[in-house]
Write a structure and sequence with these properties.
CATH superfamily of the largest domain: FAD/NAD(P)-binding domain
Number of strands: 17
CATH class of the largest domain: Alpha Beta
Order of helices and strands: EHEHEHEEHEHEEEEEHHEEEEEEHHHHH
Oligomer: single chain
Number of domains: 3
CATH topology of the largest domain: FAD/NAD(P)-binding domain
Number of helices: 12
Length: 405
């Protein structure tokens, strides 16, 4: 049976590795951290996954938290200049979303991989490790979005709209947030000129929780994490942002406490698309996947969704390839298949990082009075291709609003 090497123990790498093992492939997976180190570490993302991405997990036997994780039943949106909701509406998802702390999920996936007969090696992969793995395996896929091995993939300037971070990010896992009425939801608040805030239910090490995500415009009042030194300061900064800009969200969060001292994160990065094939000093080539090749800002909550869908596409491409060689043409075609989907996510996400044009504001405002528009917008998070052409074409947007009655 063919032998595949994967570098990176995140969503895309582990999901692909388990899918390949269940299909009978020999798989070597390099992870920088043990399951125990991940469990003891800091949170890494917010990872709200919608149904199509969850289905890709279910397809390889990774539906592990359906009875434990609180569902996300919808999305609520507010546009709130000067502490007032100028636009406010909510709609249900056709099928619930779910968020599982990666400190819970990745160790469980790693243990599933080992139980399935996978070869898990704990190593901080360096370039020489890629060369060795490439000699051992017929195909090497790099799914580690950070470190030296990610940097061997060249930035694709034509597809990378920004060359600098567009948001200052803050992440706060909490217990004690007052539940939303009617149904659970991602509560998404846009504060023009300041940034965005969204919060939603999740599952963490200590059970059900809420994840607060702050997206501050650089240099603005929500770009305030540089002087935060302790978990307690991080929590108070989170509450201070809500008190100043989103008082209704502050009331929900008045009595929150951190899930644990590691339930915080702050940072920033530039959204980047990279060329999918890298050549090693040995002359061999490797294929990038997930965040390595398509790293979007988390403002649209698509990171883990992209990773899961990328893993599903790569899995199908490998299984369908039979005994043929994994050459550069196959690698490029495999990435292009993924990019045919991910390009829409990238365009949508990048557009959200800039002031919305009038036709998009018109769509969001119309959703408050026209439930079918709200339903369309909310459920397009599951497949962002549905946003187009309405988000990109003013005429299509106008026709859609008119047809909604």
């Amino acid at each position: 049976m063919r032998r595949i090497g994967i570098v990176g123990g995140g969503q895309s790498g582990l999901q692909l590795a388990i899918g390949l093992r269940r299909a009978g492939y020999e798989v070597v997976l390099l992870s920088a951290l043990t399951p125990e180190a991940i469990e003891a570490g800091r949170v890494t993302s917010s990872q709200c996954m919608f149904d199509a991405a969850l289905q890709a997990e279910r397809d390889v036997g990774l539906d592990l938290w359906a009875t434990q994780c609180p569902p996300v039943d919808g999305i609520e949106l507010s546009i709130a200049p000067e502490q007032q909701r100028a636009v406010h509406w909510a709609a249900r998802l056709d099928r619930p979303a779910m968020s599982v702390d990666q400190r819970v999920k990745m160790p469980a996936f790693m243990r599933e991989f080992v139980r399935a007969g996978g070869d898990l090696r704990i190593v901080e992969a360096r370039l020489q490790d890629l060369v060795a793995l490439q000699r051992e395996c017929e195909l090497v896929i790099v799914a580690a979005g950070k470190g030296a091995v990610a940097n061997i993939f060249e930035r694709d300037a034509a597809r990378s709209r920004f060359d600098r971070p567009m948001r200052a990010l803050g992440l706060t896992y909490v217990h004690g947030l007052r539940p939303r009425e009617n149904h659970s939801a991602v509560c998404f608040d846009i504060v023009p000129g300041v940034g965005e805030y969204f919060v939603f239910p999740a599952l963490t090490l200590s059970g059900p929780c809420e994840i607060m995500v702050f997206e501050g415009i650089p240099g603005g009042p929500m770009d305030c994490w540089a002087t935060v030194r302790t978990p307690e300061q991080h929590l108070e900064t989170s509450r201070a942002i809500l008190r100043q800009h989103l008082p209704w969200e502050f009331e929900r969060a008045r009595c929150v406490e951190l899930t644990d001292p590691n339930g915080i994160l702050a940072g920033r990065f530039a959204p980047t698309v990279r060329h999918p094939i890298a050549r090693l000093d040995s002359g061999g080539i490797v294929l990038g996947m997930g965040d390595v090749v398509c790293l979007n800002d988390p403002i649209t909550g698509q990171g883990s969704n992209n990773a899961s869908k990328c893993a599903a596409i790569y899995l199908r491409r490998i299984l369908d390839h039979g005994r043929a060689p994994f050459d550069a043409r196959w690698m490029q075609d495999t990435f292009d298949t993924y990019w045919n989907y991910a390009s829409y996510v990238t365009d949508w996400t990048n557009s959200m990082l800039l002031p919305p044009p009038p036709h998009v504001m018109g769509l969001l405002a119309a959703a408050a009075a026209k439930p079918q528009i709200a339903h369309w917008f909310v459920n397009a998070f599951d497949d962002p291709r549905r946003f187009f052409p309405r988000l990109s074409d003013p005429v299509a947007a106008e026709q859609f609003v008119a047809a909604a009655g």
